[in-house]
Design goal:
By secondary structure, the chain is mainly alpha-helical. The protein is built from 10 helices and no strands. Helix 1 packs across helix 2 and helix 3 packs across helix 5.
Length: 217
């Protein structure tokens, strides 16, 4: 039946929760609590259904809302709904079928919007992280004097370093002095053709300008 196909998975999840709840209830109190739990379960289903109907706005007629509530929240058959609402079971099933399709469509739309919001939130978080990183970099740069910042922004080719050191830096992808100071002496020594003499020259250059190895700028 249509009812079994589309409503059973929804009701099954609710039943699973309340079955667990009843399992945790002491045996002496279980019988007296059965009706209370049943009523509570219906209320939870009704609350959930009301939230779902809100997603759909004014798409549902009064009879569609009534049928959805009776079938989904109160777990009634179409025959039982027909008796309570004064219409035949086939008519109730048709109303429910159309209303349920509207409900599913509303849920899909809401899910799509939610995914859109999550994407926007992710992008905003990425922007905030980038902004925070930029602020940290600016804070680090503010620790240097104007003269030091000028040196850090210089290209390696514009410095007084030897042609040999400039070639080593070029092969290592080091374009600016700020790239150079980010290295440790050991990392510089690992570059092609960089010997102790070249490393010593770079260190003297850094010391001259009040800089050191391993600076993140």
């Amino acid at each position: 039946m249509f009812f079994d196909t589309f409503t059973e998975p929804i009701i099954l999840n609710i039943d699973k929760y309340f079955s667990t709840m009843m399992h945790k209830t002491p045996n002496t109190a279980m019988k007296s609590n059965t009706e209370m739990v049943k009523t509570l379960k219906e209320r939870c289903m009704e609350d959930m259904l009301q939230h779902l109907l809100l997603l759909a706005g004014d798409r549902f007629s009064l009879i569609e809302r009534q049928v959805l509530n009776e079938v989904l929240a109160r777990n009634k058959t179409f025959r039982e709904v027909a008796r309570s609402l004064g219409q035949n079971a086939d008519r109730q099933e048709l109303i429910f079928s159309r209303a349920f399709e509207k409900l599913i469509h509303a849920i899909e739309e809401a899910t799509s919007k939610l995914l859109g919001y999550e994407k926007i939130e992710k992008e905003l978080n990425e922007l905030k992280a980038a902004q925070h990183s930029l602020k940290e970099k600016m804070s680090l740069r503010n620790k240097f004097s104007p003269a030091q910042r000028k040196v850090l922004d210089m290209s390696i080719d514009a410095t007084e370093l030897s042609a040999r050191v400039k070639t080593i830096c070029s092969h290592g992808g080091i374009r600016l002095v700020s790239d150079l100071v980010a290295l440790t002496r050991g990392e510089l020594r690992k570059l092609r053709n960089c010997g102790e003499t070249s490393a010593e020259e770079v260190e003297n250059f850094l010391n001259k300008h009040g800089l050191t190895w391993g600076l993140q700028v």
